[in-house]
Design goal:
five-stranded parallel β-sheet, alpha/beta, four-stranded parallel β-sheet, Rossmann fold, single chain, 3 domains
Length: 405
């Protein structure tokens, strides 16, 4: 009798232990880990920080709101970011490490189209989706890949809204110089811009490619002064554009209008140039508007305020696109009901939601369609000038000569 009772007690205790173990295992389940290789040092580190900070901010905010509901469970997100030192070869090796050794669940992207072109091949090979807001070159999406998704507007249409606005200026520019760096993004921009300028009936008087990371624009500016275009469109990196503007001033080159693919939306650009940033046109896929509602941050304006408070600098579209990448994963994981990468990939392809960055819906090649707002620096502030419905504010045009400022 006593032995029978002892046996029953032993069974009961074991049951409690197993139940307890099951509870502990469920409570301490590993989070869903998003992995990325980002430029945190080297020449692209200033922009790379937007992605590290944007990813982390989004992960923290989603976790704060309860995490991601996957099936019947609420799971936390985790982030693993490696520094690729602005080296594409290292970035590729790091993505292989993230997938094959670190066993992250899903991938976020780097900054710059050349880097994304190289690293997205890792995502495709291992069939792990990568959502990225750092590369916009058409080449990223022209290869038939199924596991790469992008939250930047397509590069070939970057100047589309700018050219629309130019046609409505008085007097409208009739001759244009097109300058572009020799990397994948800027080459894609130039190819699309030529077609857009042709459709608009604008004459290209100078079409020139320059070396990425160029610091000396003296000879190019000499040719610009000789050809005297009404407008100059420049596709390049922020450092190159800063050098171009400084040297344009030193050589007293003043077209009626000039616009740049990057730099103009950022506070760093305005800080670096001071009053010389005025009159510069640019474009952005995002502005911190209270009308952009968001499930995690309230709205884009509240997000921008919280971002400055946490990181000490203003977010631009790079940071907002990084947040959108993480939010897209949260939505896709909930829709898929699993962390299986192939099922998450299919859920990403069918996303359709609005957030602080705008409308997120990927087309058949994995890219979203976001309109660019034309902006201009006026008295040290970025002003929205032209959008889908026409002029938003009055542009300062034509550009005032350097000698008269």
């Amino acid at each position: 009798m006593r032995s029978a009772i002892a046996a029953l007690v032993a069974i009961f205790v074991c049951a409690l232990i197993y139940a307890g173990l099951g509870y502990v295992t469920n409570a301490s389940a590993a989070p869903v880990t998003l992995g990325a290789s980002v430029q945190l040092s080297g020449p692209l580190a200033n922009t790379g920080r937007y992605y590290r900070d944007g990813y982390q901010f989004a992960v923290d905010q989603i976790n704060k709101s309860g995490g991601v509901k996957i099936g019947n469970n609420h799971e936390q997100l985790a982030l693993k970011v490696l520094d690729n030192q602005s080296d594409n070869n290292l970035a590729v090796r790091q993505y292989v490490q993230l997938v094959s050794q670190d066993k992250v669940n899903l991938l976020l992207g780097s900054f710059a189209s050349d880097t994304v072109i190289a690293t997205s091949s890792v995502a495709e090979k291992y069939q792990v989706p990568m959502i990225q807001g750092g590369g916009a070159s058409d080449q990223i999406f022209d290869r038939g890949y199924k596991y790469i998704f992008g939250t930047l507007p397509v590069a070939s249409k970057y100047f589309e809204s700018t050219i629309d606005a130019m046609e409505k200026l008085a007097p409208a520019p009739r001759t244009v110089a097109l300058l572009y760096a020799d990397d994948a993004f800027d080459v894609s921009v130039a190819k699309g811009t030529r077609e857009l300028l042709g459709k608009a009936g604008l004459k290209i008087v100078l079409d020139e490619r320059y070396s990425t990371n160029a610091s000396d624009f003296a000879s190019l500016l000499a040719r610009l002064k000789s050809s005297q275009p009404d407008a100059v469109l420049v596709a390049g990196h922020e450092t190159e554009i800063l050098n171009f503007i400084r040297q344009a001033k030193s050589l007293n080159f003043t077209p009626h209008f000039y616009s740049f693919t990057v730099g103009v939306p950022s506070a760093d650009f305005r800080k670096a140039l001071g009053a010389d940033a005025d009159y510069a046109f640019g474009m952005t896929s995002w502005l911190p508007s209270a009308s952009q509602k968001d499930d995690y941050f309230g709205n884009a304006e509240e997000f921008a305020q919280a971002y400055v408070k946490r990181f000490g600098y203003e977010p631009d579209y790079h940071a907002a696109s990084a947040v959108a990448d993480v939010e897209a994963y949260a939505k896709a994981l909930e829709a898929a009901g699993t962390t299986d990468p192939r099922k998450v990939r299919d859920a990403i392809a069918h996303l359709d939601f609005n957030g602080l960055y705008g409308h997120i819906q990927f087309n058949s090649v994995g890219q979203i369609s976001l309109p660019q707002t034309v902006i201009q620096v006026q008295n040290g502030k970025v002003m929205p000038i032209y959008g889908q419905k026409g002029f938003i504010d009055k542009p300062e045009y034509p550009m005032l000569a350097w000698s008269k400022r």
